[in-house]
Amino acid sequence: MKKSLSCKDVGSDCDFVICGKTEDEIFKKAKEHARKEHDLSEFTQEFKDKARSAIREVERC
Ligand SMILES: [Zn+2]
Fold first, then answer.
1. How far does residue 17's CA lie from ligand 1's centre (Å)?
2. pLDDT of the chain along its 61 residues, tens only?
3. What per-residue confidence (pLDDT) applies to 42?
4. Range 27-41 burial, b when 16+ CB lie within 10 A, else e
């Protein structure tokens, strides 16, 4: 199983979907994406909690 996080699920009007094997990998990619696309350099604890609960288990992505 893999994990995926859709940018939309954390409140962005964005179709980007992040995929990874672990939560850490997801957060790493999410940070990169957020910095490039959304001008967001730091994640607040609130945002992290929100993102964590939006992560889904998927067969493949
Ligand atoms: Zn996005």
1. 8
2. 999 999 999 988 999 999 999 999 999 999 999 999 999 888 899 989 999 999 999 999 8
3. 87
4. beebeebbeeeeeee
Tokens at 38, concatenated: 């959304």
Number of folded domains that form the chain: 1
Query: What is the Cα 13 distance to its own chain's centre?
Result: 13
Ligand 1 centroid from CA 43, angstroms: 13
**Cα–Cα dist 50/39, whole Å:** 18
CB distance 56 to 1 below 8 Å: no
Kindly give the distance from the C-alpha atom of residue 2 to the centroid of ligand 1, in angstroms, as a whole number.
Answer: 19
Range(s) of the domain holding residue 44:
2-58
